[in-house]
Design a protein that fits this description.
Elements: H1 3-7, H2 21-42, H3 47-74, H4 80-102, H5 113-135
Helix pairs in contact: 2-3, 2-5, 3-4
Amino acid sequence: MTREARLDYFPWKDEYSVGIFEIDSQHRTLIAILNRLYSELWEDKAQESLDAAIEELIEYTKTHFAFEEALMEKYGYPGLPAHQAIHAKLTREVGEFRNSIDQGRLANPLDALPFLKDWLTLHILKQDKEYASLIADLIE
């Protein structure tokens, strides 16, 4: 597989845009982190390199979720509690992914990445677009 193909594991598509610049920028960063993680796994990088990529994904996800939730709260989005629950569930699942890799329970950690890609795609296209459609016009 060529380097270019690996970089395109999860390409950004215009349909992912929620119409809020900062959120779109953060989603692009999350996708870039997933692509780096995929590359690290594909190239069978040293464990510390893989650990750093996973930790970056976890930390950036927390930052992104906090930003989204603060935005929803600021603009009175009524679905905030449900969205927070979705965020908490993914945070737990990514932590379980990290623990599975750390403990050697995943025969091939690459097998877990489609879950992350599919989850993020669905989350952006469904839950994030829903709140963004209600508050995008309110943002100055």
